[in-house]
Specification:
With about 180 residues, this protein is mainly α. The chain is about 75% helix and about 0% strand. The protein contains 8 helices and no strands.
């Protein structure tokens, strides 16, 4: 059964959108930041998510789990960003290779120093990074993560555990340096 908040959102009530942002904005941003490893990208995704919510507000009239719905939207938006970035990288790589094949030149990529934890999280497989983001930054339970991603709660817990093990290993190596 839709809540009064979802009904107000579906009706286009600006105060309802402000209340939703106040309730979930920080969690959504942190989750997107962990998943994307870029503050600008995370800000853009959260902004775009709220624009999409407002544009398609009529769909909210049927939503029974608003938080789950919004985090699912976030997950899909991040996935679209990853796919677009991957396509762009392949295009750039192909153009660079064509330039090299034609006798042109290329420059080495710029190394950007980052904190060890951010680097370790960014190195995780997307599926594990996604669960880490939803659990830690989104504050979701494994059951909620399972519903958002479309996996079992046990799989969500396993991905979380494996991600933590990888993070511990990566950070232990960093500490020894």
């Amino acid at each position: 059964m839709p809540t009064p908040l979802t009904q107000s959102l579906a009706a286009g009530d600006r105060e309802a959108f402000a209340a939703l942002y106040d309730r979930l904005g920080v969690r959504l941003y942190r989750t997107a930041l962990t998943m994307l490893a870029s503050t600008a990208e995370a800000e853009d995704v959260v902004h775009d998510l709220f624009v999409d919510l407002a544009r398609n507000r009529q769909k909210l009239a049927r939503v029974t789990d608003l938080d789950g719905y919004v985090f699912t939207m976030l997950r899909h938006a991040v996935g679209r960003r990853h796919r677009r970035a991957s396509l762009a990288r392949r295009s750039i790589d192909r153009l660079g290779q064509e330039r090299l094949d034609a006798g042109g030149f290329t420059t080495a990529p710029v190394e950007i120093e980052d904190e060890a934890l951010a680097a370790a999280v960014a190195a995780l497989p997307i599926a594990q990074r996604e669960v880490i983001a939803l659990k830690i930054d989104g504050g979701l339970t494994f059951a909620e993560i399972a519903a958002v991603i479309g996996i079992s709660a046990n799989t969500a817990a396993s991905r979380y555990r494996y991600a933590l093990e990888k993070l511990r290993g990566a950070l232990a190596k960093e500490i020894r340096r």
